[in-house]
């Protein structure tokens, strides 16, 4: 397997063209550790040399290999907020459409990204449709993303409960207060819910511990993990708990998916789901159009 590190879009297109002619497979990598989908390829294309970015007019224009953490740090110096806690490259963030606890207030990368350039066998295309595709049909090269006013202070409130009626009441109450972040976890062993809510204002919330900051999603492994699409956060979350009994599950209020961990995939029958190691099924259909020659692994 050969690893290539192109310096610009022209080089990327040439690599793709050569791979098409020689019928070789290309796998796209950044520098993060978030790639879940396994692939076999002849060429790994690294975006590490496409690492420039510029912050201007409450936006960041960034190459796909730019470091999200560095963007976040520079944004803070300008009193701006980059709405993700991702710690890899811009390309990885967009390829995964990675959610974070801040997705409650700002949405997923799809929501705060204005445009994306990506290279296919047909040339360069500017279209957000590539967000979430995990490199199935093109190489992301550049994007413009929105930045927001940075809050002066953020307070986090946390509580563990085991009553479903109380769970409904608490989530509805917290949601009306317009949280910056609202992360909900379910522990199947304890059969309890952990609620983490962050606000830019202080509130008196009975039974909650209070600190400063936002909740962090911590996942040790993607093994036995699946993504389930939902429509009503509270009712669907509880419905999955009742019907699936996962050993762990979490969701971000305002996002239409939850992440579920089960040892028996057949328990998910009847739900719209896919493996966390795969892209959404829609992108496999789009691959037939954008990657007609099937060179992207």
From TrEMBL:
<protein>
    <recommendedName>
        <fullName>FAD linked oxidase N-terminal domain-containing protein</fullName>
    </recommendedName>
</protein>
<dbReference type="Pfam" id="PF01565">
    <property type="entry name" value="FAD_binding_4"/>
</dbReference>
<dbReference type="InterPro" id="IPR006094">
    <property type="entry name" value="Oxid_FAD_bind_N"/>
</dbReference>
<dbReference type="InterPro" id="IPR016169">
    <property type="entry name" value="FAD-bd_PCMH_sub2"/>
</dbReference>
<feature type="domain" description="FAD linked oxidase N-terminal">
    <location>
        <begin position="4"/>
        <end position="126"/>
    </location>
</feature>
<dbReference type="GO" id="GO:0050660">
    <property type="term" value="F:flavin adenine dinucleotide binding"/>
</dbReference>
<dbReference type="InterPro" id="IPR036318">
    <property type="entry name" value="FAD-bd_PCMH-like_sf"/>
</dbReference>
């Amino acid at each position: 397997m050969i690893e290539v590190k192109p310096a610009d879009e022209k080089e990327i297109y040439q690599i793709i063209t050569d791979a098409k002619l020689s019928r070789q497979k290309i796998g796209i990598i950044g520098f993060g550790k978030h790639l879940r989908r396994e692939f076999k390829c002849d060429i790994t294309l690294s975006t590490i040399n496409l690492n420039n970015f510029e912050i201007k007019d409450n936006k960041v224009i960034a190459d796909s290999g730019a470091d999200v953490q560095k963007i976040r740090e520079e944004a803070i110096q300008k009193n701006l907020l980059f709405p993700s806690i991702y710690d890899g490259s811009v390309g990885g963030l967009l390829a995964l459409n990675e959610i974070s606890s801040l997705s409650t207030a700002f949405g997923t990368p799809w929501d705060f990204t204005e445009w994306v350039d990506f290279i296919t066998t047909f040339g360069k295309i500017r279209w957000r449709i590539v967000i979430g595709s995990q490199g199935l049909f093109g190489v992301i090269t550049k994007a413009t993303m929105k930045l927001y006013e940075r809050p002066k202070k953020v307070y986090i409130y946390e509580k563990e409960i085991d009553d479903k009626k109380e769970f409904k009441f608490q989530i509805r109450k917290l949601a009306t207060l317009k949280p910056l972040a609202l992360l909900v976890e379910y522990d199947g062993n304890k059969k309890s819910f952990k609620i983490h809510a962050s606000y830019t204002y202080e509130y008196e919330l009975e039974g909650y511990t209070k600190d400063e900051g936002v909740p962090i999603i911590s996942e040790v492994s993607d093994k036995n993990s699946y993504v389930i699409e939902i429509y009503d956060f509270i009712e669907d979350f509880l419905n999955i708990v009742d019907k699936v009994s996962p050993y762990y599950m979490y969701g971000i209020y305002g996002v239409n998916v939850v992440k579920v961990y089960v040892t028996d995939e057949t328990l998910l029958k009847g739900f719209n789901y896919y493996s966390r190691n795969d892209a959404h099924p829609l992108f496999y259909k789009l691959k037939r159009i954008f990657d007609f020659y099937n060179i992207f692994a």
